[in-house]
Design goal:
single chain; 262 residues; alpha+beta; Alpha-Beta Plaits; 2 domains; nine-stranded mixed β-sheet; two-stranded antiparallel ribbon; 6 helices; 13 strands; 32% strand; elongated
Length: 262
């Protein structure tokens, strides 16, 4: 009969098979100024460098070529500013939200500002996009002598929203989109305000919407697109300062963290 396994051996075996620490943090940030001309791939690289300079221990993927676990629920198009972007960092160390915020904000990257950091509950899963909101400014009057005809644009918007589907040319092929499934709301006052639903399939772009309402020349005439909000399917609210920290704002005192379905 084999001798019983010693307590020391058993403890060592459990230690070897124990799952490595992996905590997910949701960071909201703004991407503005000249940084809006940075591609999504280069933005991801920028975040990798920022994390290294902050001396954070990132959780890595498995396999022959491990990569840091940094995820974005939605890529921002080149040239579009973002006021409320989301990146998720999986760390192999536990930090309070205020401490992670402090480390990230020490790096003064032009055009990148950290708005908040949240430590997510265990098992929360990756962020999944629900909708995105945009503001599109009027053309620059110095570049376009003709002021936009708001009444004509409103008529075009009404016509678009009454359509069942639209077809958009993409490179060497055309794509069809269901309007009601893609556009949640669209209006114009001092600027165009657009809210778009997320989809696992191809989606309309803000520039597509401009084309569809007769404003295809706006961008070339100085109009700027800003994504003002990224709304996720599952948001988590907390009153515990250990789990949530806002830049330039004292966190609220409390003790609970709960999921808020959208």
């Amino acid at each position: 009969m084999s001798p019983p396994e010693s307590t020391t051996t058993s403890t060592q075996s459990e230690s070897k098979t124990a799952e490595p620490l992996r905590l997910r943090y949701r960071v909201r940030f703004a991407k503005t100024g000249l940084l809006r001309w940075t591609s999504h791939r280069d933005l991801a690289r920028l975040w990798e460098r920022l994390v290294r300079r902050a001396q954070l221990h990132l959780s890595m993927t498995e396999g022959f070529h491990p990569k840091p676990r940094i995820g974005f629920p939605s890529a921002l198009a080149l040239g579009v500013s973002g006021e409320d972007e989301v990146v998720e960092l999986d760390l192999a160390e536990r930090l309070s939200a205020p401490e992670l915020l402090r480390r990230l904000t020490q790096d003064d990257q032009p055009g990148l500002s950290i708005k908040s950091v949240q430590l997510l509950p265990d098992g929360s899963g990756k962020a999944k996009l629900l909708r995105t909101d945009y503001v599109i400014t009027m053309p620059d009057p110095d570049l376009d002598a003709r002021p936009p005809d708001r009444d004509a644009i409103r008529a075009n918007i009404a016509e678009l929203m009454n359509k069942e589907a639209v077809t958009v040319q993409r490179k060497n092929k055309s794509a069809s989109f269901n309007v009601a499934e893609q556009i949640i709301s669209l209006s114009i006052l001092d600027a165009i305000e657009l809210s778009m639903a997320a989809s696992d399939a191809a989606t309309l772009k803000p520039t597509d919407v401009l084309d569809l309402i007769g404003c295809s020349d706006w961008i070339s005439h100085g109009s700027q697109i800003t994504r003002t909000e990224v709304v996720l399917e599952r948001e988590f609210q907390t009153t515990d300062p250990e789990f949530l920290a806002h830049a330039n704002q004292m966190p609220h005192v409390g003790q609970s963290t709960q999921e808020v379905p959208k």
